Amino acid sequence: MTEGVFEMLRAAVNIARFQQIRKVTTLRAELVRRFPDRNEDIDGAILAWANYEQSKGRPD
After folding, report:
1. Distance in angstroms between the alpha carbons of the first and the last residue of the chain
2. pLDDT tens digits for 5-30?
3. What pLDDT shows up at residue 59?
4. How many angstroms from the chain centroid is the CA of residue 45?
5. Which residues contact 54 (CB under 8 A, 6 or more apart)?
6. Model confidence band, residue 60 (pLDDT cutoffs 50, 70, 90)
7. Helices H, strands E: what count in the chain?
8. Distance of alpha carbon 12 from alpha carbon 10, whole angstroms
């Protein structure tokens, strides 16, 4: 994981937590709004988080 992806992952977790965002599309839109030139890092962060959630075996 690159430093940029890690930075976006940390931002994504904090934004989702503090704004109580439950949908990936809503979270992605908020990340793009805040970091408009970081689409590649945003996509990598969302993928990393999705892989983590899948590895936990949660149905969400």
Report:
1. 23
2. 999 999 999 999 999 999 999 999 99
3. 59
4. 5
5. none
6. low
7. 3, 0
8. 5
Q: Domain residues for 14? A: 3-56
The total number of structural domains that make up the chain:
1
The DSSP element (H or E) to which 31 belongs, if any, is helix 24-34
CA atoms of 27 and 22, how far apart (whole Å):
8
d(CA 40, CA 8): 10
Instruction: Specify the residue for token string 């430093």.
Output: 3
Place of tokens 């976006």: 8
State pTM to two decimals.
0.86
